[in-house]
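Why does residue order matter? Because the sequence determines the fold. Keep that principle in mind as you read this record.
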Amino acid sequence: MAVASALSMSSPASAGAQAAANRVCAKVYVQGSGWTAEQCANAGQSVSVGAAGGGRAIEAVEMAVAGSSLCARGYRQGSGWGAEKCAASGTRITLGSAGSGLRLESVIFGVQTGTMCGNSYVQGVGWNPVWYCGVNGETNAIGTTGQNKRMEAVSFMICRSIESC
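Structure:
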């Protein structure tokens, strides 16, 4: 399992002392199909959204975390990395551009307190055998950049500790 990344996340202005993240919710906009139903999971469980192996790109991801602030960035076809977006506990972040026809190729994510892990199903690759995790403000990325490959599904998990992921 990969842990940590070279990026550190910002804190939203409303973030103060918080408990560790304990729940994650996500939905995606699938090219030609629209938004999936939102899926949520408590700590120790994963949430997966999209259509793995369906041949359709994710154009946007909407996500929220309870119990901690969340920061994320998306890498969009033709545009590269978008601006970092941060939100307080329970507030949704949307990455990418729903209905644009442009694929979201990668997502960087992290929570201010706790551990958040992610995985993606990538065109021609399938599910990555490794979950990528960030701990207490560290971020990590799923998907690919510079390879012109679409993400077809994503999974996120909040863990009680890095050892429990």
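The CA atoms of residues 119 and 131 lie 5 Å apart.
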